[in-house]
Amino acid sequence: MADLVPVGGGLPLVFFFLLYGAVFLYVILDGYDLGVGMLFAATQDADEREQMIHAIGPFWDANETWLVLGVGILLAAFPVAHGMILGMLYLPVAMMLSGLMLRGAAFEFRVKAPIRHRRWWDGAFCGASLLAAVSQGVMLGRYVTGFSEAAWAWPFALGVGLALPAGYALLGAAWLIMKTTGEIRRRAVGWGRRSLRGTALGMAAISLATLMCLPDVAAKWLAMPMPIGLAPLPLATLVLIAVLEWSLRCLSRPPASGEEGEGCPEWLPFFAAVGLFGLGFAGLAYSLFPSLVAGRLDLWQAAGSPASLRFLLAGVALVLPFIVFYTVYVHWVFRGKLTAGPYQDRSAPLL
Questions:
Q1: What is the DSSP letter of 39?
Q2: By Cβ atoms counted within 10 A, which residue in 80, 122, 152, 253 is the most buried?
Q3: Helix, strand or coil for residue 293?
Q4: In this structure, are residues 50 and 343 in contact, taking their beta carbons and an 8 Å threshold?
Q5: Where are the beta strands (DSSP E) in 7-114?
Q6: Rounded average pLDDT over 257-274
Q7: How far apart are CA 260 and CA 129, in angstroms?
Q8: Where are the domains of the chain?
Q9: Is a pLDDT exceeding 90 seen at residue 236?
Q10: What is the pLDDT of residue 347?
């Protein structure tokens, strides 16, 4: 890789990986939140929905910090790319932000809403989660194609927009398996199995479509000897899909002794799903590198001045440890299974 880095070009490379890292952590952390929100549509039971809200209540708001960090890095470190990307993605970005705002409002208002109105807020929470997930998938699809205006470009982006919610639902179901007990946990296993099929099918279809529609990406993956060197990525993906299928099947079997989760690690589906997303991000980074906007800008063309990058790096070095610490701390404090009771007090309902 050293021969690809221009003299004095190390800082843009650092920020490239910081940007991808922030986006990856956002996708994982807010992904399971959005997944749980979308799974609201799979149950009408009020107690089950309360458990689902309780499972993400302490985490969901802070998880979006990683999105703010990623956008901040893009704006400050790659200002040219920031203007181009957000300009090209104006509509799906607006839809995503609308979904995230409505989801936040619904999350809070449903707690105090009278019974007759709560189902509407639950519907808004589910619909807003789906809107945000689909919008993010469309954004990813448009970004991967370099905002191509070819006839296949928008169908490709819409395909990614349909596949990403399945991955988020898989993360959400796996999170519920770790955090809940009883009937809701049993149902989460079933949701996870169905979501896994959609995720695997979506990954296969998008990978094939990418190789067929993007010649530059196909050359990076298929020109010898790259298929040999890159073989561990698709093989590891198949292994993780098999691990997910096995673990979800195992968790769906009634335990012989009556102890829930006997012999089947409940943490395994979630971390295998995280690994699956990680491999997807690794493949994406390899496919696009060194481009920041495929076919238009590489990361050195898009980067700000060295002086501004050095100043920004000092700021990131100061802020990033606090974000990492808080993320780890809140997940540690609220580790383990849910405790009984609603997430928030309903004693003062709204009129």
A1: G
A2: 122
A3: strand
A4: yes
A5: none
A6: 77
A7: 30
A8: 8-254+261-333
A9: yes
A10: 45
